[in-house]
Amino acid sequence: MKAPRGAPRLYLISDRRATNGRPLPDVIAAALDGAGAHAPSVAVQLREKDLEARPLLELARALRDCTAARGARLFVNDRVDVALAAGADGVHLGGGALAAADVRAVAPALEVAASTHAVADVLQRRDAGGLSFVVFGPVFETPSKRPYGPPLGLAALGEACGLGIPVLAIGGVDAARTPACRSAGAAGVAVIRAVLAADDPGRAMARFFGAIEST
Fold first, then answer.
1. Is 76 exposed, middle or buried (0-12, 13-18, 19+ CB in 10 A)?
2. How far apart are CA 178 and CA 23, in angstroms?
3. What one-character DSSP code corresponds to residue 117?
4. Peptide bond into 138 cis (omega under 30)
5. What confidence tens digit (pLDDT) does each residue in 158-197 have?
6. Using CA atoms in the order 36, 182, 19, 34, what is the torsion angle rounded to 10 degrees?
7. Which residues lie across from 190 on neighbouring strands?
8. Is 200 helix (H, G, I), strand (E, B) or coil?
9. N or C, fewer C-beta in 10 Å, the chain?
């Protein structure tokens, strides 16, 4: 079993429709190049739920190449089989997915992360064990997270961060809001469009790490 590397400081979640027509691997590579020496503290989550197994695996392998070359980790959303076939570092569990213990049973070398949308979710995931970190949100208002309800806010984030498991803040997080998330106790932040849709993804990543380093 691999020793877990802990929570990333920045978790870049994929959405190939948010790249303004640019190939997703190219945008991720540019973002990681912008992270520079911080790239090993980045993890990329491949989250393309509409793709069938074969194209998803092809994309996972392309992302594995660009993340491995820069020392970043790769997680695959829900699909343990694709994560294993692509040589990914971990799997990210959404709602209704396998339990972390089930993933550990079939793929002990994979790290496991999970999504949470309430403090009670964090507590439940923590007590079940087997996770490297959880993503918590939405912390701020954001259209992509409206199906999960109103924003939870920084007070709830702080409560979640006090439960003894590394927590990443997601939902409306930009570089300006990153210090507040870190001050609430977040190990890092998770983002999608703030980097993928940026005209210069590398510069966007550099701004995030400037904000992270300031706290």
1. buried
2. 27
3. S
4. yes
5. 999 999 999 999 999 999 999 999 999 999 999 999 999 9
6. -10
7. 11
8. coil
9. N
Domains by residue range for the chain, with CATH:
10-213 (3.20.20.70)
User: pTM (2 decimals)?
Assistant: 0.95
- Rounded to the nearest 5°, which phi and psi values hold at 150? -65, 160
Any residues with CB less than 8 A from the CB of 16 and at least 6 apart, and which?
24, 48, 59
Taking 50 as the threshold, does the pLDDT of residue 3 lie above it?
Answer: no
Residue in the block written with tokens 């540019």:
30
Q: CB neighbours (10 Å) of residue 94?
A: 12
Spell out a b/e string for 122-148, using b for 16 or more CB atoms within 10 Å of the CB, else e.
bbebbeeebbbbbbbbbbbebeebeeb
Distances (CA, A) of 80 to 33, 97, 103, 108, 211: 27, 10, 7, 11, 33
Q: Determine contact, residues 12/31, Cβ cutoff 8 Å.
A: yes
